[in-house]
Amino acid sequence: MGDSLSSWLALREPADSRARSTALTRVVADLFREHRPVRILDLGSGTGSNLRYLAGHLPMAQRWLLVDRDPVLLAEAAAPTTGCLVETRCLDLGESLPPEIFAGRDLVTASALLDLVSPEWLGAIARECRESGAAVLFALTYNGRSQCTPEEPEDDEVRELMNRHQRASNHGFGLAAGPEAGEYAAQSFREAGYRVGCAPSEWVLAPEARELQRELIEGWAEAAREIAPDRAAIIGPWLERRLAHVEANRSRVTVCHEDLVAWLPDHEGNSRETVRSLSAAAGPVSGREAIQPLDDHRAVSTRQAIRRA
Ligand SMILES: C[S@@+](CC[C@H](N)C(=O)[O-])C[C@H]1O[C@@H](n2cnc3c(N)ncnc32)[C@H](O)[C@@H]1O
Question: What is the CB-side half-sphere exposure of residue 46 using CA atoms within 13 A?
Fold first, then answer.
Protein backbone atom coordinates (compact mmCIF):
# COMPACT_ATOMS: atom_id res chain seq x y z
CA MET A 1 0.00 0.00 0.00
CA GLY A 2 2.77 2.41 1.03
CA ASP A 3 4.39 3.01 -2.38
CA SER A 4 1.28 3.77 -4.43
CA LEU A 5 -0.24 5.85 -1.62
CA SER A 6 3.04 7.71 -1.28
CA SER A 7 3.00 8.59 -5.01
CA TRP A 8 -0.62 9.73 -4.78
CA LEU A 9 0.13 11.91 -1.73
CA ALA A 10 3.12 13.46 -3.51
CA LEU A 11 1.02 14.14 -6.59
CA ARG A 12 -1.75 15.87 -4.65
CA GLU A 13 0.44 17.85 -2.24
CA PRO A 14 0.85 21.02 -4.40
CA ALA A 15 -2.93 21.12 -5.08
CA ASP A 16 -3.64 20.63 -1.37
CA SER A 17 -1.27 23.41 -0.44
CA ARG A 18 -2.89 25.85 -2.88
CA ALA A 19 -6.40 24.89 -1.77
CA ARG A 20 -6.09 25.30 2.00
CA SER A 21 -7.75 28.21 3.73
CA THR A 22 -5.14 30.80 4.64
CA ALA A 23 -7.75 32.50 6.84
CA LEU A 24 -8.19 29.44 9.06
CA THR A 25 -4.44 28.82 9.13
CA ARG A 26 -4.02 32.40 10.39
CA VAL A 27 -6.60 31.78 13.10
CA VAL A 28 -4.62 28.83 14.40
CA ALA A 29 -1.29 30.64 14.16
CA ASP A 30 -2.83 33.51 16.11
CA LEU A 31 -3.84 31.20 18.96
CA PHE A 32 -0.23 30.18 19.55
CA ARG A 33 1.62 33.44 19.08
CA GLU A 34 2.93 33.31 22.66
CA HIS A 35 3.65 29.56 22.83
CA ARG A 36 7.23 28.17 22.99
CA PRO A 37 7.17 25.51 21.67
CA VAL A 38 3.84 24.65 20.04
CA ARG A 39 3.10 20.93 20.56
CA ILE A 40 1.19 19.44 17.63
CA LEU A 41 -0.38 16.05 16.92
CA ASP A 42 -0.99 15.19 13.24
CA LEU A 43 -3.44 12.29 12.78
CA GLY A 44 -3.19 10.15 9.63
CA SER A 45 -0.12 12.18 8.70
CA GLY A 46 1.02 10.14 5.69
CA THR A 47 4.42 11.48 4.61
CA GLY A 48 3.92 14.82 6.41
CA SER A 49 2.18 17.08 3.89
CA ASN A 50 0.27 18.83 6.70
CA LEU A 51 3.53 19.39 8.61
CA ARG A 52 5.19 20.86 5.52
CA TYR A 53 2.27 23.24 4.99
CA LEU A 54 1.80 24.36 8.59
CA ALA A 55 5.42 24.58 9.76
CA GLY A 56 6.02 27.86 7.96
CA HIS A 57 2.80 29.39 9.29
CA LEU A 58 3.08 28.53 12.98
CA PRO A 59 5.48 30.21 15.37
CA MET A 60 8.86 28.51 15.86
CA ALA A 61 9.62 26.33 17.77
CA GLN A 62 7.36 23.37 17.11
CA ARG A 63 7.19 19.81 18.37
CA TRP A 64 5.29 17.47 16.12
CA LEU A 65 4.03 13.93 16.62
CA LEU A 66 3.03 12.35 13.30
CA VAL A 67 0.78 9.29 13.62
CA ASP A 68 -0.15 6.91 10.82
CA ARG A 69 -0.73 3.19 10.47
CA ASP A 70 1.57 2.99 7.43
CA PRO A 71 5.27 2.71 8.39
CA VAL A 72 6.42 3.26 4.78
CA LEU A 73 4.76 6.68 4.68
CA LEU A 74 6.04 7.65 8.12
CA ALA A 75 9.59 6.76 7.08
CA GLU A 76 9.38 9.44 4.37
CA ALA A 77 8.36 12.22 6.76
CA ALA A 78 11.05 14.82 7.34
CA ALA A 79 11.25 18.07 9.28
CA PRO A 80 11.11 21.01 6.87
CA THR A 81 13.16 23.40 9.04
CA THR A 82 15.56 23.26 11.96
CA GLY A 83 13.05 24.84 14.37
CA CYS A 84 10.81 21.80 14.08
CA LEU A 85 11.25 18.67 16.13
CA VAL A 86 9.39 15.75 14.51
CA GLU A 87 8.59 12.35 16.01
CA THR A 88 6.56 9.61 14.36
CA ARG A 89 4.43 6.80 15.72
CA CYS A 90 3.00 3.89 13.79
CA LEU A 91 -0.47 3.23 15.11
CA ASP A 92 -3.87 2.13 13.84
CA LEU A 93 -6.01 5.03 15.04
CA GLY A 94 -9.17 3.05 14.38
CA GLU A 95 -8.12 0.44 16.92
CA SER A 96 -7.01 2.74 19.71
CA LEU A 97 -6.66 6.39 20.66
CA PRO A 98 -4.04 6.30 23.41
CA PRO A 99 -4.59 9.31 25.68
CA GLU A 100 -0.83 9.96 25.85
CA ILE A 101 -0.67 11.05 22.20
CA PHE A 102 -3.15 13.84 23.04
CA ALA A 103 -1.73 14.80 26.44
CA GLY A 104 -0.11 18.24 26.51
CA ARG A 105 -0.93 19.03 22.85
CA ASP A 106 -1.70 22.61 21.91
CA LEU A 107 -3.02 21.64 18.48
CA VAL A 108 -4.53 18.45 17.05
CA THR A 109 -4.59 18.50 13.27
CA ALA A 110 -5.17 16.29 10.22
CA SER A 111 -5.40 16.78 6.49
CA ALA A 112 -7.41 14.77 3.96
CA LEU A 113 -8.47 12.36 6.68
CA LEU A 114 -11.95 13.13 7.97
CA ASP A 115 -13.96 11.71 5.07
CA LEU A 116 -12.36 8.32 5.85
CA VAL A 117 -13.48 8.20 9.48
CA SER A 118 -16.81 7.40 11.15
CA PRO A 119 -19.12 9.80 13.03
CA GLU A 120 -18.44 7.82 16.24
CA TRP A 121 -14.69 8.25 15.81
CA LEU A 122 -15.15 12.01 15.36
CA GLY A 123 -17.07 12.09 18.64
CA ALA A 124 -14.22 10.23 20.38
CA ILE A 125 -11.60 12.59 18.92
CA ALA A 126 -13.56 15.65 20.04
CA ARG A 127 -13.67 14.27 23.60
CA GLU A 128 -9.90 13.51 23.59
CA CYS A 129 -9.12 16.99 22.29
CA ARG A 130 -11.37 18.55 24.95
CA GLU A 131 -9.65 16.51 27.64
CA SER A 132 -6.22 17.82 26.63
CA GLY A 133 -7.50 21.37 25.96
CA ALA A 134 -6.13 21.32 22.39
CA ALA A 135 -7.29 23.52 19.52
CA VAL A 136 -8.07 21.77 16.25
CA LEU A 137 -7.44 22.25 12.53
CA PHE A 138 -8.79 19.66 10.08
CA ALA A 139 -7.98 20.51 6.48
CA LEU A 140 -9.21 19.26 3.12
CA THR A 141 -12.31 17.25 3.99
CA TYR A 142 -14.15 16.27 0.81
CA ASN A 143 -17.77 17.43 0.95
CA GLY A 144 -19.34 15.37 -1.84
CA ARG A 145 -19.28 18.04 -4.55
CA SER A 146 -17.23 18.21 -7.71
CA GLN A 147 -17.53 19.66 -11.17
CA CYS A 148 -15.92 18.66 -14.46
CA THR A 149 -15.82 20.59 -17.71
CA PRO A 150 -16.51 19.89 -20.50
CA GLU A 151 -19.53 18.22 -18.94
CA GLU A 152 -20.53 14.63 -19.72
CA PRO A 153 -24.09 13.32 -19.20
CA GLU A 154 -23.00 10.72 -16.63
CA ASP A 155 -20.91 13.09 -14.45
CA ASP A 156 -23.58 13.42 -11.75
CA GLU A 157 -24.27 9.69 -11.61
CA VAL A 158 -20.59 8.78 -11.29
CA ARG A 159 -20.11 11.39 -8.56
CA GLU A 160 -23.10 10.04 -6.62
CA LEU A 161 -21.77 6.47 -6.94
CA MET A 162 -18.36 7.63 -5.73
CA ASN A 163 -20.00 9.32 -2.73
CA ARG A 164 -21.95 6.14 -2.00
CA HIS A 165 -18.72 4.17 -2.19
CA GLN A 166 -17.13 6.51 0.36
CA ARG A 167 -20.01 6.04 2.80
CA ALA A 168 -19.75 2.26 2.40
CA SER A 169 -15.99 2.19 3.11
CA ASN A 170 -14.31 1.21 6.35
CA HIS A 171 -10.69 2.26 6.85
CA GLY A 172 -10.56 0.77 10.33
CA PHE A 173 -12.60 3.57 11.93
CA GLY A 174 -16.06 2.09 11.34
CA LEU A 175 -18.28 3.05 8.38
CA ALA A 176 -16.92 6.28 6.89
CA ALA A 177 -18.82 9.55 7.27
CA GLY A 178 -17.73 10.37 3.69
CA PRO A 179 -19.12 13.61 2.31
CA GLU A 180 -20.97 14.35 5.58
CA ALA A 181 -17.77 14.21 7.67
CA GLY A 182 -17.40 17.99 7.92
CA GLU A 183 -20.93 18.30 9.34
CA TYR A 184 -20.35 15.52 11.85
CA ALA A 185 -17.03 17.01 12.92
CA ALA A 186 -18.54 20.46 13.48
CA GLN A 187 -21.36 18.94 15.53
CA SER A 188 -19.01 16.76 17.61
CA PHE A 189 -16.72 19.66 18.49
CA ARG A 190 -19.61 21.98 19.34
CA GLU A 191 -21.05 19.29 21.63
CA ALA A 192 -17.63 19.06 23.31
CA GLY A 193 -17.73 22.80 24.09
CA TYR A 194 -15.73 24.18 21.13
CA ARG A 195 -16.39 27.11 18.87
CA VAL A 196 -16.19 25.97 15.27
CA GLY A 197 -15.37 27.69 12.02
CA CYS A 198 -15.20 26.38 8.49
CA ALA A 199 -13.96 27.60 5.11
CA PRO A 200 -13.80 26.10 1.62
CA SER A 201 -10.54 24.55 0.40
CA GLU A 202 -11.36 23.37 -3.08
CA TRP A 203 -9.05 22.00 -5.73
CA VAL A 204 -9.40 23.91 -8.96
CA LEU A 205 -7.44 21.81 -11.43
CA ALA A 206 -6.41 23.43 -14.69
CA PRO A 207 -5.94 21.41 -17.92
CA GLU A 208 -2.18 21.34 -17.25
CA ALA A 209 -2.72 19.21 -14.08
CA ARG A 210 -3.06 16.18 -16.33
CA GLU A 211 -1.52 13.54 -14.09
CA LEU A 212 -3.53 14.51 -11.03
CA GLN A 213 -6.75 14.70 -13.07
CA ARG A 214 -6.08 11.31 -14.64
CA GLU A 215 -5.48 9.61 -11.27
CA LEU A 216 -8.52 11.28 -9.75
CA ILE A 217 -10.89 10.37 -12.57
CA GLU A 218 -9.62 6.77 -12.73
CA GLY A 219 -10.13 6.53 -8.96
CA TRP A 220 -13.70 7.79 -9.29
CA ALA A 221 -14.44 5.22 -12.04
CA GLU A 222 -12.95 2.38 -9.98
CA ALA A 223 -15.03 3.32 -6.91
CA ALA A 224 -18.19 3.69 -9.01
CA ARG A 225 -17.68 0.26 -10.64
CA GLU A 226 -17.03 -1.35 -7.29
CA ILE A 227 -20.21 -0.03 -5.67
CA ALA A 228 -22.40 -0.51 -8.77
CA PRO A 229 -21.05 -3.31 -10.99
CA ASP A 230 -24.32 -3.23 -12.93
CA ARG A 231 -23.40 0.31 -14.16
CA ALA A 232 -20.02 -0.78 -15.60
CA ALA A 233 -21.32 -0.44 -19.17
CA ILE A 234 -22.05 3.25 -18.51
CA ILE A 235 -18.93 3.97 -16.45
CA GLY A 236 -16.40 2.58 -18.97
CA PRO A 237 -17.35 4.90 -21.85
CA TRP A 238 -17.67 7.83 -19.41
CA LEU A 239 -14.10 7.19 -18.27
CA GLU A 240 -12.83 7.06 -21.85
CA ARG A 241 -14.46 10.40 -22.72
CA ARG A 242 -13.25 12.10 -19.51
CA LEU A 243 -9.68 10.89 -20.08
CA ALA A 244 -9.85 12.06 -23.70
CA HIS A 245 -10.66 15.58 -22.42
CA VAL A 246 -7.63 15.36 -20.13
CA GLU A 247 -5.31 14.22 -22.93
CA ALA A 248 -6.63 16.97 -25.19
CA ASN A 249 -5.76 19.59 -22.59
CA ARG A 250 -9.32 20.83 -22.22
CA SER A 251 -10.38 19.27 -18.91
CA ARG A 252 -10.99 21.36 -15.78
CA VAL A 253 -11.95 19.72 -12.50
CA THR A 254 -13.13 21.31 -9.26
CA VAL A 255 -13.27 19.17 -6.13
CA CYS A 256 -14.86 20.80 -3.11
CA HIS A 257 -13.22 20.33 0.29
CA GLU A 258 -13.61 22.17 3.57
CA ASP A 259 -11.22 23.17 6.33
CA LEU A 260 -12.44 23.27 9.91
CA VAL A 261 -11.00 25.04 12.92
CA ALA A 262 -12.23 24.53 16.50
CA TRP A 263 -11.06 26.33 19.61
CA LEU A 264 -12.10 26.59 23.23
CA PRO A 265 -13.22 29.83 24.84
CA ASP A 266 -10.02 29.60 26.99
CA HIS A 267 -7.88 29.99 23.84
CA GLU A 268 -9.36 33.37 23.03
CA GLY A 269 -7.30 35.02 25.78
CA ASN A 270 -4.11 34.10 23.85
CA SER A 271 -5.21 35.53 20.58
CA ARG A 272 -5.34 38.77 18.73
CA GLU A 273 -7.93 40.35 16.53
CA THR A 274 -8.55 37.49 14.09
CA VAL A 275 -9.80 35.06 16.70
CA ARG A 276 -11.80 37.64 18.60
CA SER A 277 -13.66 38.70 15.47
CA LEU A 278 -14.16 35.06 14.43
CA SER A 279 -15.50 34.31 17.83
CA ALA A 280 -18.00 37.12 17.63
CA ALA A 281 -19.08 35.90 14.19
CA ALA A 282 -19.39 32.28 15.37
CA GLY A 283 -21.58 33.28 18.31
CA PRO A 284 -25.22 33.54 17.37
CA VAL A 285 -25.32 31.36 14.25
CA SER A 286 -23.60 28.26 12.94
CA GLY A 287 -19.87 28.95 13.02
CA ARG A 288 -19.46 27.00 9.78
CA GLU A 289 -21.39 29.60 7.83
CA ALA A 290 -20.25 32.56 9.84
CA ILE A 291 -16.60 32.08 9.11
CA GLN A 292 -16.85 31.62 5.39
CA PRO A 293 -16.89 35.36 4.63
CA LEU A 294 -13.38 35.63 6.13
CA ASP A 295 -12.10 33.98 3.00
CA ASP A 296 -14.62 35.60 0.77
CA HIS A 297 -13.05 34.90 -2.60
CA ARG A 298 -13.09 31.15 -1.93
CA ALA A 299 -16.55 31.21 -0.38
CA VAL A 300 -17.94 32.78 -3.54
CA SER A 301 -16.15 30.38 -5.86
CA THR A 302 -17.39 27.39 -3.86
CA ARG A 303 -20.97 28.62 -3.99
CA GLN A 304 -20.63 28.92 -7.76
CA ALA A 305 -19.15 25.41 -8.03
CA ILE A 306 -21.99 24.01 -5.93
CA ARG A 307 -24.61 25.71 -8.06
CA ARG A 308 -22.98 24.28 -11.18
CA ALA A 309 -22.68 20.80 -9.69
C1 LIG B 1 -5.61 10.63 2.24
S2 LIG B 1 -4.25 10.20 3.24
C3 LIG B 1 -3.76 11.79 3.91
C4 LIG B 1 -2.33 11.82 4.35
C5 LIG B 1 -1.80 13.17 4.80
N6 LIG B 1 -2.52 13.69 5.93
C7 LIG B 1 -1.82 14.16 3.66
O8 LIG B 1 -2.58 15.13 3.71
O9 LIG B 1 -1.05 13.96 2.72
C10 LIG B 1 -4.95 9.38 4.64
C11 LIG B 1 -3.92 8.86 5.61
O12 LIG B 1 -4.58 8.22 6.69
C13 LIG B 1 -3.86 7.05 7.03
N14 LIG B 1 -4.80 6.11 7.67
C15 LIG B 1 -5.88 5.51 7.10
N16 LIG B 1 -6.49 4.72 7.99
C17 LIG B 1 -5.78 4.82 9.15
C18 LIG B 1 -5.90 4.22 10.44
N19 LIG B 1 -6.88 3.34 10.71
N20 LIG B 1 -5.00 4.56 11.39
C21 LIG B 1 -4.00 5.44 11.12
N22 LIG B 1 -3.82 6.03 9.92
C23 LIG B 1 -4.70 5.71 8.94
C24 LIG B 1 -3.32 6.54 5.70
O25 LIG B 1 -2.22 5.67 5.87
C26 LIG B 1 -2.96 7.85 5.00
O27 LIG B 1 -1.64 8.23 5.28
Answer: 22
